[in-house]
Amino acid sequence: MTEEKKAKLKVAAKAPKLADPIAATIDTATQQMIVRAQQLGIDTVFDRAAQMKPCNIGLQGTCCKNCAMGPCRLPLPKGGIEGEDKRKGLCGATANTIAARNFLRMIASGAAAHSDHGRCVAEVFMSAARKETDAYQIKDTNKLIAVAEKLGVSATVEVDGETKDRDIDEIALEVAHKALNEWGKPEGELIYLSRAPQPLYEKWTKAGVKPRNIDREIVEIMHRTHIGVDQDYKNLMKQGARCALADGWGGSMLATDLQDIMFGTPYPLQSEANLGIMKEDHVNIIIHGHEPVLSEIIVAVSQRPDILKYAKSKGARGIQLGGICCTANEILQRHGVPSAGTFLQQELAIITGACDAMIVDIQCVFQNLANVAKCFHTKLITTHPIAKMEQENVMHIEFDEHHALEDAERIVKMAIDNFTNRGSEVMIPRQKATQIAGFGVESIQYHLGGTFRGTYYTLNDNIINGRIRGLAGVVGCNNARTRHNEAHIAVVKELIKNDVLVLTTGCNGIACAMEGLLTPESAGIYCGPGLKEVCETVGIPPVLHLGSCVDNSRILLAATEVIKAGGPWKDLCDIPAAGSAPEWMSEKAISIGQYFVSSGVYTVFGVTLPTTGAPVFHNFITKDMEKLYGGKWDIEPDPIKHAQLMIAHIDKKRKEMGIDKARERVLMTMEDRQAIER
Ligand code: SF4
Ligand code: MSK
């Protein structure tokens, strides 16, 4: 071998392994941008995933570091456990205890993230109700009255024996107090539990898992998982269920309701998705994170004529807003702001070279954004007091509802000023797809309700007659350990092909939008005959985008409306429905999964579950839990098998409800019918 060849090999051996763009993602825009990043020598999450292997013991959920005698690592022996499982940590904690404690801490963290988001919204709501800020008002008074009723706040008052409507501001103030109280009230139970079907409420009572207040359930998990406290995986999971319910039927549900009242309840609208929404001749502002309180104002400010004039004075043709992750979903649902991409595309938005500012709030924000931004002119701005970055090039403009308009104006102007600093290294992929988003409990009622009955009558009717085989809630993140968007799209396509109507949120919603599945026209291409007929008659997509991660509460309430509208079902676990998170990664997904399960939903996760190293505990959550709540966990990384598990569950429920035959009749071809008649 020549010296030159040896030297080349040495360099190659030292060079970090780079991601294969085709293996990393199914999305061609993302593939192009991974190549672009590699050409520019900028590492992305895809390369880092190729370079770093996950820890096998952590994957199994059996590594404990809850005290300084550990970490105690209890891997599952090759070939599994025969006989008694003698594995234990220094304190004697078994693999079941360790896996359950870790699982609970994920639930606590996920519930805390959603619920702290909810608390922040409730505080802004309080400021709006007190009229301490001009930036926020009560936009949807109908929703305010509906929410007031659920919280036990009267919308009317008796004056001299006459019933009169109460002042809206007065109602708002009382709603704000009632809502904020849910985080820390000293006694009682969460008010919204009463929104669940009665049999489910009774199950929670019997199991002793009704949340008392939101914060307490999170704190209690941290206590019970401390060394030497709760050492019974079943008892631990009781608290896991209680904390997750405090998220789904508490913090998340309140966040959604109060956001709808302040920012408007979403109704279907048209928009676009993928990196191609960015425009070379516009100021591009990317908003990323989860909390819509500041982004709402940024949307309003960027549409103001004086601001547009200012952008034009700098040579831009306008301002293009785009979203990443769930802030994207929030501003998409209410204003039609296009989605620039999912969780795994956040670095790529900057690598286009055309991102003049990226504004981030909380959750799912990569710290590496700062390193990527350094390579371009992009201003990276953190806005939340609890989420800063250590890198010097990151600017912090702290949001406060009392001066939200000024904050938003400062940020948008900074982005406009930065437009002139763009380098020549601009490459925006062309790919983008049309999407119809903005669905919710109310709009499903409008599209699939009865004209005179004002309920979910038409939806129920079509489930019972079998045109719609069942419902699926498909949600959650991307995970760099799996091929970006592949499982999301394969699961959803398999479901709609089999006549299952899909309700989506989070990054699954964005992935489906990028694939063109959020259009009514996609029904004709991808759906089975029953679902196709319903979608074409009503004019809806076969995949209904319900919003952000906290908006999974909309899925719970939509399912509850199905019960109320009548049919053979009495409880959520009776409905032919299933949940799924094909590419999950965040702790919030575990909290969501657990509140789905504790609400009676069979829930399948892709990738893996951090419970496989403790087979007894794993068995408990994937089998035994069904006896308590009617729902249980499952794990299936293969997307087609994953969807088929959900469909098998849906068919099992159809049979239990006595509606399996109706579907067979409705899906018969004309020839089949004629054959019977002859
Ligand atoms: Fe080990 Fe027990 Fe400490 Fe966990 S709590 S690290 S199992 S000694
Ligand atoms: S943003 S939590 S990656 S869905 Fe809600 Fe997407 Fe998951 Fe974040």
Assembly state here? single chain
Global geometry: globular
Query: How many whole angstroms does the radius of gyration measure?
Result: 25 Å
Strand portion: 5-15%
- Structural class per helix/strand content? alpha/beta
Say how many strands there are: 18
The averaged pLDDT comes out at: 94
The CATH architecture of the largest domain:
3-Layer(aba) Sandwich
* Number of separate domains: 3
Report the total helices: 29
Cofactors, ions and other ligands in the entry: iron/sulfur cluster, Broken Fe4S4 cluster
- The N- to C-terminal Cα distance equals 82 Å
Let me know the largest β-sheet. Answer: 6 strands, parallel
Low-confidence segments: none
Describe the model:
With 678 residues, this protein is of the alpha/beta class. The chain has three domains: 95-263, Substrate Binding Domain Of Dnak, Chain:A, Domain 2; 275-421, Rossmann fold; 436-656, Rossmann fold (3-Layer(aba) Sandwich), CATH 3.40.50. It contains 29 helices and 18 strands. The strands form five sheets. The protein has a six-stranded parallel sheet. It has a six-stranded parallel sheet with strand order 15-14-13-16-17-18, sandwiched between helices. It has a two-stranded antiparallel ribbon with strand order 1-2. Helix 14 (325-335) links the parallel strand 7 and strand 8 (339-341). The mean pLDDT is 94. Broken Fe4S4 cluster (MSK) is lined by residues 290, 325-326, 343, 364, 476-477, 506-507, 548-549, 586, 588. Iron/sulfur cluster is lined by residues 64-67, 69-72, 89-91, 93, 98, 227.
Short précis:
This protein has 678 residues and is α/β, with parallel strands linked by helices. The chain is built from 29 helices and 18 strands. The strands form 5 sheets. A 6-stranded parallel sheet has the order 8-7-6-9-10-11. A 6-stranded parallel sheet has the order 15-14-13-16-17-18, with helices on both faces.
